Amino acid sequence: MPPLPETPFNDMRSQADSDRLFGEIKFWYGSHRKSHHIGIIVEAKTDEDLYGGLFVRKNCVFFHSNGWSKAIPALQQANTQQLRGVICIIDADCRRIENEKPEIENLFMTDYHDAEMMMINSLAWEGVLNEYADNSIPSSGGLSKLDRFEQTHNQDIKTHFLEACKPVSCLILLNQKEKLSLEFKKFIRNKNKYKYPDYSKFIHPKKLICDVNDLINEIENFSVQHNLFRDKPELRTKLDNLIATEFDLLELCNGHHFINIFVLALGEIGKNAQREDIETNLRTAYRLQDFQQTNLYNDLKNWQNAHTTPYHLLN
Length: 315
Hints:
The chain is of the alpha/beta class and 315 residues long. The protein has helices spanning 8-31, 45-52, 68-80, 115-120, 123-132, 145-153, 157-178, 212-223, 228-231, 234-244, 249-252, 255-269, 275-285, 288-291, 295-305, and strands at residues 38-42, 60-64, 86-90, 107-109, 186-188, 193-195. It has a 4-stranded parallel sheet, with helices on both faces. Strands 5-6 form a two-stranded antiparallel ribbon. It is globular, with a radius of gyration of 21 Å. The two termini are 30 Å apart.
C-alpha cells in the first residue's frame, strides 16, 4: 500500500484514526472481553471475512483499521498498556522485498504481497479459474479458450497475469520509494467500495501485456498528477530499472491489481465478472488445508502455543 504523503494534516489524521481504533480495542478489553477472547486487528472487512472462516470464530473479535498505517500504532498502544491477547495481521506489501519486517511479537504478515496473493498461490485459484475461465473443449474439436491462450503465449495464465501486473506493481513500489503521492485506488464513500484505474487503457485486451507509457498516463490522470514523469524524466529511468529487476512476483504484485487484470482477460477467455465477486469466490474456495501450508499459519500457531493463557485461535 502506498504511504500517505508526509504532511502534517495526514499525520494528524492518521494518528487520530489509530487513536480511535485503539479506543475501540480498549473499550472492548475493559468491558466485554473474556479471558480466552482474542482481539484481532485487520486492515479491512474482507480480511475478517477470510480469517473469520479459518480461525475459531467464537473466540475472535475483529477490529478494522482501514490500512496498516493505523493498525500498527494501535497495536503498539495496546502493547504499551499490556492488553493481552491482542494481535494484528497486515498485508506484507513489499516489506520483504525492501527488507523491512516489523519486529513486534504479536504483529503478523501475510505470505507474499497480500491475502489475495496468498490465496492465488493456492488451490483456491484453480477453483476460481475453473469457475470463470472457459476451459470447455468445443464440440467441433480443438482447444478451449483458456488452453488456446496458454498455448499462444507459451505460459500458464497465472504467470502471464503476474508478468502483466509487474509494471503496475513496480510503479507502486517507485511511488512508495520516491513519495510521489500517486493513487492506485480511491475509496468511493457513498458506494462503500474502491474505484481502480481503467486497466483497458494500459493493458492490451487480447495480448494482456502492459504498455508502460499508457500506464504512466492513466495513473497520472487518475491521481490528478499530470506531467509528473515528463517534468522529472529521472523517474522513468528508475521505473524502467525496477521493471528490469528480478523479483518474486508473488511478493511484488498486489492481488487486487492481479484480479483486475483477470477481469479484463475474461472478455477473451471466459465470462464477464466483477472484481468483488471473484475475490469473494476466492475466499470461499480457500480452505483451512491451504492456510495450514503458510508461514502465517505457523507464526500464529507459535504465538498461540507460547502463551500460558489458553488462547484457542486456530482450528
